[in-house]
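#lab-general

N.A. 3:47 PM
ok so I finally got the sequence cleaned up, no stray characters, all 116 residues accounted for. can someone with queue access submit it? mine expired

B.Y. 3:52 PM
send it over

N.A. 3:53 PM
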Amino acid sequence: QVQLVESGGGLVQPGGSLKLSCAASGSISSIYFMDLGWYRQAPGKQREFVASIFGGNSRTDYADSVRGRFTISRDNAKNTLYLQMNSLKSEDTAVYYCRKLGSNLWGQGTQVTVSS
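B.Y. 4:20 PM
back already:
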């Protein structure tokens, strides 16, 4: 059984930065070959794709709304996925989830609030 646990959320002012982490644990040797992604859900809205990183070649993809501001990465040795978020805007406020793509494996979410 693999588990995903997010951390790093919090309150930040517009224009600020946060770095989210998603630690994988359980029946797993390495996340190297795992396709992983970040999603978010704002109040009253559907959950939406934010970014993804693919196993092996580490190819990345981003939603248009975050491209150039957010960076997805991973540390295979630590079995941890990251999301560096810069130039944050109020519309980035949401609960952020990590996910193993192509599966129903999700983390529990971490709240990000961008407000002055």
